[in-house]
Amino acid sequence: MTDYILSIDQGTTSSRAILFNRDGELCATSQQEFPQHFPNDGWVEHEPDDIWNSVLSTCQGVIKQHNINANQIAAIGISNQRETTMIWDRTTGEPIHRAIVWQDRRTAATCSELESADSKNEQTIKDKTGLLIDPYFSATKISWILDNVPGAREKAERGELAFGTVDTFLIWKLTNGASHTTDATNAARTSLFNIHTQQWDDDLLALFNVPKSILPTVLDSSANFGTVDPQWFGESICIGGVAGDQHAALFGQACFEAGMAKSTYGTGCFLMLNTGKKALSSQNRLLTTVAYRLNGEVTYALEGSIFAAGTTIQWLRDGLKLIGDAKETEALALQTPSEHGVYLVPAFIGLGAPYWDPNARGAIFGLTRDTGIKEIVTAGLQSVAYQTKDLQKAMELDGVRPTALRVDGGMVANNWLMQFLSDMLGATVDRPTITETSALGAAQLAGLQVGFYDSLSQLSDLWQRDRLFEPSWAKEKRDTYYDGWLESIEKVKQGETSSL
Ligand SMILES: Nc1ncnc2c1ncn2[C@@H]1O[C@H](COP(=O)(O)OP(=O)(O)O)[C@@H](O)[C@H]1O
Ligand SMILES: O=P(O)(O)OC[C@H](O)CO
């Protein structure tokens, strides 16, 4: 009897393995952080071996911890940090460069050149991929590796190299090189995939100078991605579900109806709204993306991507040493007078949606002689809610308003922040019992593939509320707070970007 799904959640700062049972209950979890490398200003890299070893040991860890045999695992699901780019040798399996992480800004100049080379480029990319021109996405990272690792481009032209986002790399490793695949959600974040035709796009490959031979095969999010080599867990297990972590979280939050939205507060913050079978094109610099693809049928989403959420708390802890633990932020915020007037704009690596300004940098405004640790920490928490408000406003300008906002990620444990978020949005904020929704979504996608589950409505029924936060502020109060944020944003912007 196979009783479990093993879910891998490979995130930006840590890898997690979680065992779920048929009822979607979390049975065991193991997590391992790994080093971040910052070799140059704005560069962020991961060592592929660190990613692989942390995934392997956390998977082996949960199997041992829950004292099960690997033959009790029906399938494996993978949810992963998106856009992060790896290229390896097809024969040896050796990466030819460290992974270039989604946060990395080294290709900012390449992106500006692409924009100025031809005014049509931005529109072409937007029409085909739903994305903007930004170093965030994989395409310019791939080209950078091919141009900067000696001999790489020639090898790629000869078909000797393989590209993958983290999902593809893990599938390759787990199957011992037998499967070079990805799913439609991950492909949709490369800038090379046409989200309407669901094909790698020759025009985009030419524009970004990427040879087709290095690309993986794109499958549904629930599909047979290959069989895990028995050397890793002692059994052959099917990899049945794969999705980028934000897409997996939308799925794990059971946002299956158009209008339903989730917002994940981890390292960054990503708000995704299900738009159904319609790929809604934003006029306010939000992204159009594949929510998930099942049986060849695509469900689309509108996404707002914020680069700094939990990162801000980590910076307050590790950089400024104002706190010893992220949990302390809640008690400090509770002690802070509400009219403190401090705004912290965490544009550490520029601003993401809806501003998309890679050159903006962070700042703290409104300091007085009274300002202390608690005001700065509170302003850090509030910046997360203000940025979500920016996304809500952009969505409203695009004519959509989430019917429900379900939240997840490490930061949602903070009740003060969730209440402030609800007050700032003027909307209810719904927190589920399982906040490991990326892992849950990947497990459910895998479970659908192997018959563990048979319908989306069955999965909807498994979703359970922990707590609903309701807005308590009058509009005037909300506007006063938010206006101060918008003024602060205007002061840090460097480029010609959108204004809200
Ligand atoms: N109680 C809390 N209040 C505020 N932030 C928190 C709290 N607990 C955790 N965090 C922040 O949440 C982040 C971790 O969330 P997680 O979803 O695990 O991130 P990721 O998957 O991106 O690595 C960290 O940046 C941490 O600082
Ligand atoms: O690792 P996370 O959870 O911060 O997610 C990263 C995103 O997928 C980047 O697009």
From TrEMBL:
Binding residues annotated for ATP, in chain numbering: T12, T13, S14, T267, G310, Q314, G410
EC class (word): transferase
Binding positions for ADP per the UniProt entry: T12, R16, T267, G310, G410, N414
Carbohydrate kinase FGGY N-terminal domain residues: 4-252
PROSITE patterns: FGGY_KINASES_1
Binding annotation for sn-glycerol 3-phosphate: T12, R82, E83, Y136, D245
Transmembrane residue ranges: none
Record field: catalytic activity: glycerol + ATP = sn-glycerol 3-phosphate + ADP + H(+)
Source domain of life: Bacteria
GO molecular function, one term: glycerol kinase activity
EC numbers, comma separated: 2.7.1.30
Sites where the protein binds glycerol: R82, E83, Y136, D245, Q246
Sorted UniProt keywords: ATP-binding, Glycerol metabolism, Kinase, Nucleotide-binding, Transferase
Carbohydrate kinase FGGY C-terminal domain location: 262-448
InterPro entries, A to Z: ATPase_NBD, Carb_kinase_FGGY, Carb_kinase_FGGY_CS, FGGY_C, FGGY_N, Glycerol_kin
Record-linked Pfam families: FGGY_C, FGGY_N
Pathway the protein takes part in: Polyol metabolism; glycerol degradation via glycerol kinase pathway; sn-glycerol 3-phosphate from glycerol: step 1/1
Activation and inhibition: Inhibited by fructose 1,6-bisphosphate (FBP).
Family membership: Belongs to the FGGY kinase family.
Known role: Key enzyme in the regulation of glycerol uptake and metabolism. Catalyzes the phosphorylation of glycerol to yield sn-glycerol 3-phosphate.
The protein's name in its UniProt record: Glycerol kinase
Taxonomic source organism: Reinekea marina
